[in-house]
Amino acid sequence: MFAKAVQGGKQVVASTHSEVLVAALGNAVRRGVLAPDQVVVHHLERDETGVRSGSIGISEKGYLDEWVKSFAAVEGGLFREWGEGVREEREVSGRGHARSEGRRDRPARRRTGK
């Protein structure tokens, strides 16, 4: 949708916390749907002095020069939390993952109609 709008001469400004959207823009550049100079990714960062902004370049192949720092921080926290949950579950149940209610130990056999 964004690519079509840009191709139609529109300027699109979006604010997102979605790394999927940023990756999709990179894919649009990689596929040649958008040119690198048609996409600008800005990263806003807050510190004790206020909010700073910087842009992240994108290559002809759709790769960002660097990953969005706040995305990386959130991803790292989610993976640490997930890893701790797996460790806790293993200690409680002896399994490496949480078991959903009603789940069988073995998958059900498929009927072949014979």
Which helices and strands, and how do they pair?
Elements: H1 2-7, H2 19-30, E1 41-47, E2 50-56, H3 69-93
Antiparallel strand pairs: 1-2
Can you offer a commentary on this structure?
By secondary structure, the protein is of the alpha+beta class. Strand 1 (41-47) and strand 2 (50-56) form a beta hairpin. It starts with a helix and ends in a 21-residue tail after the last helix. The protein has two domains: 2-66, no CATH class; 68-101. Helices cover 38% and strands 12% of the residues.
**Continuous helix count:** 3
- What is the number of beta strands? 2
Distance between the termini: 48 Å
**Quick check: average pLDDT?**
80
**Structural class of the secondary elements?**
alpha+beta
Portion in helices: 25-40%
Order of helices and strands: HHEEH
- The overall number of domains is 2
Low-confidence spans: none
Radius of gyration, Cα only, in angstroms?
22 Å
Beta-strand residue percentage:
5-15%
- Strand order within the widest sheet? 1-2
> How can the largest sheet be summarized?
2 strands, antiparallel
> What is the 3D form?
flat
Task: Label this structure with key terms.
114 residues, two-stranded antiparallel ribbon
What is this entry, summarized?
About 40% of the residues lie in helices and about 10% in strands. With about 110 residues, it is of the alpha+beta class.
